[in-house]
Structure formats: C-alpha cells, structure tokens
Amino acid sequence: MKVRKQLIAFSAIVLVLAAILANLFYRKAELSLQNFLRPYSQTKVLMSMQGFRFVQFGQDDIPWRMEARHADLYESKEARMRDVEIVFSGAESRVITLLGEEGTLNTATGDAVIHRGQRDVRVVTSDGYLLTTSSLTWSSRERNVRTSDPFKLLGNTIYLEGRGFSGNTALHMLKVNDHVKAVLHE
After folding, report:
1. Do 61 and 131 fall within a single domain?
2. Domain assignment of residue 7, given as a range
3. Residue 174: left (phi > 0), alpha (psi -120 to 50), or beta?
4. CB 3.0 to 4.6 Å from 164: which of 37, 95, 98, 148, for a disulfide?
5. Are residues 60 and 9 in the same domain?
6. Do 18 and 51 lie in a common domain?
7. First to last CA, the chain
C-alpha cells in the first residue's frame, strides 16, 4: 500500500514536469532555472543592462533625455527601468528634471510612465519649483506631462496642491483637475 502511494506521487510529479516542459517547448522558451521561476509573459526580455540612456533629438537641440540605473528591454519595444531621471531642455536655458524610482518607456514613441517606489515622483525646475506626486505620464509627441494622482507644487511665490493635472512643457502651462488649493506669498 505504501509503495503504491509513492508510485502515484512519483507519477504525478513526472506528469507535472512533462506539462512544464511541453509548455516551454510550445512557447519556444530557453530551458533554464530562471525561466522556470519567472512568470509567463507575452513579451521576451531582449537584454538587461546597468546604465541606460535614451535621447530624443529635436531639430537643433536635445528636447529631452532619459537615464536609468537599470533597464530591461523587451521585444515589445518597452523598457522597464529603475532609478529614472528625465531631463527636459527648454527655452531660455530652462531645465525640468523628473525623478522616480520605477518607470516604463515605449522606445518607439518616446512615451513614458514614472511610478513612485519608496519616495514620491519629483519634478524639479531650474527656476526653483518642486512638484511631488505618485506617478507621472509623459507624452513625447504632445510634450505633455500628466497625472490623476494627488500632487503638491512648491515654488518661490506659490504653494499649490490638488488631484490630477496636465502640463505642457513647451507652453509652461499647468491645468489642475480637482481639489485645488493655492497659497500665494511674496
């Protein structure tokens, strides 16, 4: 009786391993321990790298660049990054820097999403503004940054908070969606 239970358990293990191997061959995945432990994904990692830089060129200048400490590049033209910095070069030598712990970049369009990790996503400008929120979405074509999350903006003459905003980097405009609170000071 004991031998029969052991034989049934061994047969079950063999069947599970055969199903896993069949699935791997069906997906044409590499046979490695890392692939066994990784959840199934529709897209395959093409490469992982320490230090990643993505620059989008304008006509005569570099409108923005993105750097990350670590990036995984996928065959779907997506880059998933950690410790992200995006720097926008604007008119009159104005610089806007977005800082976040996690982000995703569409390498075909230049669109990006930056998410909070341990710390808020931060936007720092060369003229003294600091904005904090949980996530930001950048649309490269529209040069627009937006969030639906609560945010706080602190500058030399203003404190502003609310829920959600949309801002155009070329026009220096910010539209707040809801729950606006502003304090002006000299």
Report:
1. yes
2. 2-37
3. beta
4. 148
5. no
6. no
7. 88
In angstroms, the CA 139 to CA 121 distance is: 17
**Strand pairing of 173-184 and 78-89?**
unpaired
pLDDT at residue 167 is higher than 90: no
For the residues of 19-73, what is the DSSP string, one character each?
HHHHHHHHHT---SHHHHHSPP-SS-EEEEEEEEEEEE--SSS--EEEEEEEEEE
CATH number at residue 173: 2.60.450.10
pLDDT in tens, 86-111: 888 776 778 888 899 999 989 888 88
Task: State whether 11 and 59 are in the same domain.
Answer: no
Q: Which amino acid is at 14?
A: V
**Alpha-carbon torsion, ordered 164, 169, 171, 174, to 10 deg:** 20
Q: Looking up tokens 């569409």, which residue turns up?
A: 106
Is the confidence at residue 40, as pLDDT, over 60? Answer: no
